[in-house]
Amino acid sequence: MRTLVLGVLTVSALLGRARAENDSQTDLLGPREVALGEAMRGGATGASAIGLNPAGLPLNRELVFEGGYGYRASDSASLIAVSACDSTNAMPGCFFYDHAGASPEEGGMTGKRSTHVAGLALSRLLAPRVMIGATTKYYHFDSDMMGDTKASGFVFDLGATVRVSHLINLGVAAQNLWASEPSPRFPRAIGAGLHAQPLPSLALGFDMRWKLDGEDHSARYGGGAELFLRSDGSLGFPIRIGGLRDNGLGATYVSGGVGLAGLKWGLDIAARREVKGGDETMVIGSLRFYGPRMPSSGLDAD
């Protein structure tokens, strides 16, 4: 999740409880990624690039500040994030901070887990249609749960995006590829995705991610679609749906979200519900403000 808490979502007490995959690869996702089944590695821009693929930052040219809040009922987790991303210069980048605070129940007892993550994502246009990127993250994990180990250190992500045509992007990214102090909360993983825009108002995505740590090397794959509707004025209304399957957890999720986009600001809200393997529910929203926004014509050069 990404972004500055400028508003708080009220979540119903009726939300279900179940176990959650509580690690950096899910806690760092925002409402757009969640709504689309995490299928944005081929088209991740702005704050979405932080958790999925830093190489996507040059896909647009804008200065954007974003902040958000999410709630996951399974472990009573509050997910807070803030970011500032600037892709108007020769080396696009993002500064970010994320916090996940949870109160999981195990063995009839409730404990506390807290994760702080701060860092920098940078990207570079290597060729007119080829982008590379890297993210450096400092984390601090604290817990009073039995079996958990407190840890802090640096972890690093790498990514690449290829703009195959005006309609199709391919992306690949490795999360937590190297760590100064390995932690199960920051497992190594590699993911790849396809992002297609067959119509100006319609975008489609499909992603897969494989864990490299652990015994099962589980796969997590999903897809989604975004329809962007415009009013007669300057407002836009993105509508998103998605699905996600995690083989390691034996879990299947459905997700969706809506947004409101103006020339200088944007609002996104998303929800995800586990429909097989448990009953986890998560709700997340973000608000962003734009500075200068420019065309990205350089990406379309031959």
Overview of this protein structure:
- The protein has 302 residues and is mainly beta.
- It has one domain: Porin (Beta Barrel), CATH 2.40.160.40.
- The chain contains 3 helices and 16 strands.
- The protein has helices spanning 24-27, 31-35, 48-51; strands at 61-72, 77-86, 93-102, 105-106, 109-110, 113-127, 130-143, 151-163, 168-179, 189-199, 202-211, 219-230, 236-246, 251-261, 265-276, 281-294.
- The strands form 2 sheets. The protein has a 14-stranded antiparallel beta barrel with strand order 1-2-3-6-7-8-9-10-11-12-13-14-15-16.
- A hairpin with a 2-residue loop joins strand 10 and strand 11.
- It is globular.
- The two termini are 35 Å apart.
Query: Overall 3D geometry?
Result: globular
As laid out across the biggest beta sheet, the strand order is 1-2-3-6-7-8-9-10-11-12-13-14-15-16
Name of the level-1 CATH class: Mainly Beta
* CATH fold type: Porin
Q: What amount of the residues lies in strands?
A: over 45%
Could you tell me the mean pLDDT?
88
